[in-house]
Hints:
- The chain has 178 residues and is an alpha+beta fold.
- Helices cover 26% and strands 51% of the residues.
- The protein has helices at residues 2-22, 25-37, 150-155, 157-162; strands spanning 41-50, 54-64, 67-79, 83-93, 104-113, 116-126, 129-136, 141-148, 164-165, 171-177.
- A ten-stranded antiparallel β-sheet has the order 1-2-3-4-5-6-7-8-10-9.
- The longest helix is centred in the N-terminal third of the chain and has 21 residues, at 2-22.
- It is globular.
- It starts with a helix and ends with a strand.
Amino acid sequence: MLKTxxxxxxxxxxxxxxxVVLLPKxxxxxxxxxxxxxxxxxxxxxxxxxxxxxxxLKDTNIKYENIDVGQVSNVExxxxxxxxxxxxxTIKLDSMVSKFIPSDIDKVSLEHSIMNPNEVxxxxxxxxxxxxxxxxxxxxxxxxxxxxxxxLQSQFRQTIRVLxxxxxxxxxxxxxxx
Length: 178
């Protein structure tokens, strides 16, 4: 009895593993492009590289309503059996957007785990600051804790008015319902 249960468990894990490895990751990227097009967002990628566990996008331009918003040097989506991680490196935003938020973002990391399927964790690193938080997929709420330097506080005063101050100096929170 125990041998057969163990055997079927191994078969199931192997089956899921093979699905993750053989999944056509390029098609997921093209599906994403199709889905975000309805929000007038377009991704133009020079190189899409797929391997066993990762999908890498190199030199991606982001357009909103046919206006260049920014460039991303590297996006890497890594899928394992129980979790998925998205790492976005070196985002350079257009000068129009940089009036509201920093134009150079070093890294954005998103993590999702089957152990906590309702939440996506976020970490954003940028010059003179950092943000971390989560997206609650059931309640459709984004919560961010943002730490920024005095230089950025003076540079982005309009944006900071939208944020809530916390008790510690230089820390703010942001909540958005979608």
